Amino acid sequence: MIPAKGFAIFSKDGKFQEHRFNRHALGKNDVLIDIHYCGICHSDIHAAYSEWGEGIYPMIPGHEIVGIVTAVGSHVHKFKVGDRAGVGTFVNSCKQCSNCLNHHEVLCEHGKTVHTYNCPDYFHNNEPHMGGYSNCIVVDEDYVIRVPSDAPFEKIAPLFCAGITTYSPLKFAQVKEGTKVGIAGFGGLGHMAFKYALAMGAEVSVFARSESKKEMAMDMGAKHYYSSVKDAKHANLDFILSTIPTSYDLTDYVRCLAYGGELAIVGLPPFNVMPTISIAQLVFDPNKKVYGSLVGGIKETQEMLDFSILHNIYPEIKLVEGKDIDQVFYDLTHSNALFRHVIDMKKSFK
Ligand code: NDP
Ligand code: ZN
Ligand code: ZN
């Protein structure tokens, strides 16, 4: 066992508190990472507040992790002590099913994807796995991303969820030079999607629910900024990525698509207000594709990191400390936040 400490929530209406726990011992394929930074994703809020069904408590969220390798198991060959490393939304899977073998580990067909938190660790006695709002983590090297030593460390962390979750559907939809793209929800994920789409050569518009980020979006190179989706029904977009974490009307976005256009959804609102779409809507506004997307595999995550570094694409971040988590959750759910908050773990413990 490896003693660890983190910031845990103990019930859906609780507050974060410092919490001591144990990481499993270092296995022969594992690396021990001293965590330096961890991003705060809106998924952390949905999970911590049991908005996707009852959470597993105590819960230490966090799945946008970067740190430095401090120990390696005897069979580890990708990492050595002192290397920079990243961990995203999952830390293990079966490695044998066709999805795992085809680099879609998060879609493990045997149901063995171990999500970084709020999930039993199927490979270690089903102990609930604890996330990155903590000082260290032990992960199988196959699920750890190599981070170059000259990359801006604290800005790399959010790439392991916000980055890959938006890069992956943009690639899947083959967004390229001239594609007319709309990004719905302009927060942590949305602003990364925006930057990637722009780098892929697309003409990018933003859908938000207020005017507050209009100037920023236009400065960043937006084609249009819609504070109401109703104003965009003749936009004729080829591709829309929805990152919206609240209830909304999906049909409004389908309407903004050109014939043959695609709406990919990554935002996952609370289950009790989950948007739905009617068959009649799809039939009478036909030949448009609507589908979901779930983060991305390890291979694609490494590709996303290379793309981000090559094109100098990083999130806009605000550094915070562990004591600030409750306030950040409040701000993210009260339209009082810009893009991404990143916890400086080294400054967080007394
Ligand atoms: P943020 O809170 O950082 O950003 C959400 C943005 O959406 C905010 O800018 C917010 O604006 C805006 N927004 C909220 N409601 C609406 C609305 N009705 N119309 C337009 N804009 C709206 O969240 P994240 O980017 O971190 O996460 C977004 C969602 O993606 C979450 O549901 C999260 O769980 C999910 N997610 C899914 C993943 C996947 O693999 N599919 C992976 C990671 C996250 P305002 O400032 O006004 O509140
Ligand atoms: Zn996330
Ligand atoms: Zn599998």
Automatic annotation (TrEMBL):
Transmembrane segments: none annotated. GO terms for molecular function: oxidoreductase activity, acting on the CH-OH group of donors, NAD or NADP as acceptor; zinc ion binding. Its cofactor is Zn(2+). Residues 92-120 form the C2H2-type domain. InterPro entries: ADH-like_C, ADH-like_N, ADH_Zn_CS, CAD-like, ER, GroES-like_sf, NAD(P)-bd_dom_sf, Znf_C2H2_type. CDD domains: CAD1 (cd05283). Keywords: Metal-binding, Oxidoreductase, Zinc. Belongs to the zinc-containing alcohol dehydrogenase family. This is Cinnamyl-alcohol dehydrogenase ELI3-2 Cad. It comes from Helicobacter suis.
